[in-house]
Amino acid sequence: MFALSPEEVTAVRLSLRIAAVATIVSLPFGIAAAYAVARWRFPGRALLDGLIHLPLVLPPVVTGFLLLLLLGRKGVLGAFLADHFGIVFSFRWTGAALASAVMGFPLMVRAIRLSIESVDRRLEAASGTLGAPPVATFFLITLPLAFPGIVVGSILSFAKALGEFGATITFVSNIPGETQTISALIYTNTQVPGGDAGAMRLMLVSIVIALAALFVSELVQRRARRRLALVP
Amino acid sequence: MIEVAASLQQGAFLLDAAFSCDSGITALFGRSGSGKSTVIAIIAGIRRPDRGRVAVNGQVLVDTNAKIWLPPHRRRIGLVFQDSQLFPHLTVRQNLLYGRWFSRHGGDEIGFDAVVSTLDIGALLPRRPPQLSGGEKQRVALGRALLANPALLLMDEPLASLDMARKIEILPLIENVRDAFGIPILYVSHALEEVARLANTVVVLDAGRVVACGPPEAALGSSPQPSVRDRFSIASVLNVSVGPFDERYGLTLLRHPAGDIFLSGRIRPHLQDVRVVIKAIDVALTTEPPRQLSIRTVLHAHIGAINADERAVAVIDLVLPDGSRLLALATRKALDELNLAPGRPVFALIKTVAMDERPVGAVDTRRAMAGGKR
User: How close, in Å, is residue B192 to chain A by CA atoms?
Assistant: First the structure.
């Protein structure tokens, strides 16, 4: 009953890979966006903030469709990337990772932004008066102090990527072994007679992964907080 | 040589200050909201002035006319904040060495060991800032600023968040830093005792403007209209020479042309000329020499001016025989009943028990002379 079928194992491994790649690749962009919104005042800041949050409020299917229009084989950007760099997103697992990253981006940026905003700017000023150029201050002061928020943002993005369904299925469809994630396979199972057992096994796997992610996040955060002595 | 001239509009507040100072400790003195911290932020490069010029030892940091603006990390200005701002994720040692990573100069660097021993922070090196007390944090912050090899050290109310015991512990350390490393220090404070003890030049700020600038006894005594509203903070500074210490009664004799001043406790032994801070609320007046009174310090003076309005308490500006000024407070009722008016000779009585050795600062005769020539 609890043994996963080869198809299910494939879906679980694919999901983990997609979520991990989505989180790791989007993290530098997430930190940059969070820093820009938290620390800089520039024209178009509200627009950038809105764009980042758009996937949170748009129906996921709409986000997926937008990605398809932009990055599909015949999409404006998709055709360019495919012709010049050989990068193809549509109907590939990379496309699933992209869709997951986009959907998780607002959650990631939000958590990191809050932690950057909570870094005392006078610590950054102190670093400057000690001779540190702004880039050094960012890597030596701001980033380490914002570390707990970066962990939270990454875990949120990872969890969102694992659960992503609407945008992914719209953008890259539901191809076993390529884009069929846990969520997509559960959906497939519920559409066929006798698929309930498989759906339930995958559900249990999802719960275990989610709890593990939360546990790891809590552990890393607690260690970081203790190191920064934010709690005694 | 530090030259500052800056104006900055912040809402309704206009800072428009210009002053220059030399080596040693220059105090930027004034009540809160007078613009002291804004001046510091402009010198450090944390804020940009609307107009102005700041130069340290000939190097221009800001000049709005010449469109020069050096970013903070290229200014070599050390800054000690009121609340230390140590990096919480680094150890004390890493905090101290932080500036070293960026200072690209060889030769006459300030030594790590010299700073650690001057500030007595050797035992703290492996700790992290949250494990330090307030006084320890300020010592480490001072060391961190020094080790970045600054051309000028700014201290923004470094003792304001500490209790009296910690202040007394740190004041001599600041003097040691001044003497050991020869870095000019700009010291922001609203505490008269600290300023009188540490500074050889005082710049008094009020409502964003420089109202006085000079040696402490002149600059601090010349606040134009001391307000009765904050009467507990009105005080004067007198230059006195140190006489013998009375072992039996534990009193130090201080000599002033107006008379002898008794101070409870013993002054640090090597001092000859010192400044004492005398609070106006501790000065009483009488028209004839007192007999049968517990107060031992009696100074000859005459009334220079009386600053009175409809309030109960008036500020009396006394002129001492050597021309120095002493502020006293009395009720208007007392003034009328004693028939006190400008020009009248009086005796100023100072309660010895109200003063002790803590706020006494050394007068650096070398600097006092240099100041006199200008």
Answer: 27
- Mean pLDDT over residues A94-111, rounded? 93
Instruction: Select the residue of B73, B81, B144 nearest A128 (Cβ to Cβ).
Output: B73
Nearest chain A residue to B78 by CA distance is A129
- Considering only alpha carbons, which residue of chain B is nearest residue A134? B73
Task: Compute CA B198 distance to the chain's CA centroid, rounded to the nearest angstrom.
Answer: 6
Q: How far is CA A159 from CA A93, A151, A199, B311, in A?
A: 17, 12, 19, 70
| Prediction ipTM score | 0.81
Between chains, do B102 and A136 touch, taking CB under 8 Å as contact? Answer: yes
Residue A97 confidence (pLDDT): 93
The set of residues, in sequence order, having a beta carbon less than 8 Å from that of B196 and lying 6+ positions away, is: B216, B220, B237, B275, B276, B277, B359, B361
| Alpha carbon of A101: minimum distance to chain B alpha carbons (Å) | 30
CB B118 within 8 A of CB B126: no
Domains and CATH numbers, chain B: 2-221 (3.40.50.300), 228-362 (2.40.50.100)
Contact criterion met (CB below 8 Å) for A53 and A103: no
The helix (run of H) or strand (run of E) holding residue B307 is strand B297-307
Per CATH, the number for A15-181 is 1.10.3720.10
Tokens of B137: 């944090």
Residue A232 pLDDT grade (very low, low, confident, very high; cuts 50, 70, 90) = very low
Q: Cβ(A56)–Cβ(A106) under 8 Å?
A: yes
Cα→Cα distances B5→B31, B61, B77, B204, B210, Å: 20, 12, 17, 14, 10
User: Are the C-beta atoms of B140 and B132 separated by less than 8 Å?
Assistant: yes
pLDDT band at B225 (very low <50, low <70, confident <90, very high): low
Chain A residues interacting with chain B (CB cutoff of 8 angstroms) = 120, 122-123, 125-134, 136-137, 140-141, 144-145, 227-230
Q: Where are the alpha helices (DSSP H) in chain B?
A: 36-44, 92-97, 112-119, 134-147, 164-181, 192-198, 216-221, 332-337, 365-373
